[in-house]
Amino acid sequence: xxxxxxxxxxxxxxxxxxxxxxxxxxxxxxxxxxxxxxxxxxxxxxxxxxxxxxxxxxxxxxxxxxxxxxxxxxxxxxxxxxxxxxxxxxxxxxxxxxxxxxxxxxxxxxxxxxxxxxxxxxxxxxxxxxxxxxxxxxxxxxxxxxxxxxxxxxxxxxxxxxxxxxxxxxxxxxxxxxxxxxxxxxxxxxxxxxxxxxxxxxxxxxxxxxxxxxxxxxxxxxxxxxxxxxxxxxxxxxxxxxxxxxxxxxxxxxxxxxxxxxxxxxxxxxxxxxxxxxxxxxxxxxxxxxxxxxxxxxxxxxxxxxxxxxxxxxxxxxxxxxxxxxxxxxxxxxxxxxxxxxxxxxxxxxxxxxxxxxxxxxxxxxxxxxxxxxxxxxxxxxxxxxxxxxxxxxxxxx
Length: 398
Prior knowledge:
The chain has helices spanning 21-30, 70-79, 84-95, 112-119, 128-139, 141-152, 167-180, 197-205, 267-280, 298-312, 322-325, 332-346, and strands at residues 6-15, 18-19, 36-39, 46-50, 100-105, 158-161, 186-193, 226-227, 229-236, 245-254, 289-291, 317-319, 348-349, 365-366, 371-372, 377-384, 388-395. By secondary structure, the chain is of the alpha/beta class.
């Protein structure tokens, strides 16, 4: 059953590609990856990471100083780009702050606050209580949402969503449902993930952290590259300009197959894509381009490739943007959704960066170069641990 569209009236992205949409677009057009070499030390080895230029982030000050952490700094950098705050203020004037929701996805929040107590040894002394208090104030997942809510002055419904790597894709679905149900007239959707050692250690222990820049769909792919990012978008019930892009549909499924691995044939993501098409009221052949999850691990790419072929065939244009930004974890859903929106706005599809030799065992048409393309309908996949899948479909302006 098709849903009513929500209109994307403003959005901004901060990632390894740049701070704000203009820098992001310029880096994409120049075909330069945002990944940088990172030495984790003699015991952990080397990897590549999608760092954000810290000189361009903002430290919370005044009444918000207690919220200082990597996530809040990234959030402020994104909020102060691309007219986002002005758009939120205009929406507050139209609807009232109580009619604007906030849905934020993250995995670790500002866990760097807690990590610091290990790095400097203070977790072993009397300041442990102070450290833990600071973590609960600044770094916990819920307070990442509380910080943004207070900073923007929003009093509508809000939620923090943590479903691994699909977290900030699911914020779009949650916001759409809240708008459809009449709980709000607009919603800020967000995803944020900062630099922290927890994710690096975790993926290394799983054996999926690559020592090279990640290579989605490549025959020599061997794992992921991690990245930091913050993405924000404002969804509204009604358009505010003729060029507003539209959220048309979404699908959400859970594999219930394995704690970390996807279903090997991609059954869950197939159902997610079919749900998204149904809610958008579209046939599969209407989709022009897919921003695939494309993590660069052997199992994930195989499963998603099989699912896409069953739904769309082998000819649809696909690419993974994780070779540009790294896997931004809880922020990956919105990072890739906003890159899709930029692609739709600018009429081109980005290459799958670092994919040098496509795996002959995979069948999707992966773009190896940026390609001019009018994308009327675009789709973005996000696959998370536990088989948490989310698919989003966006449409060009009417």
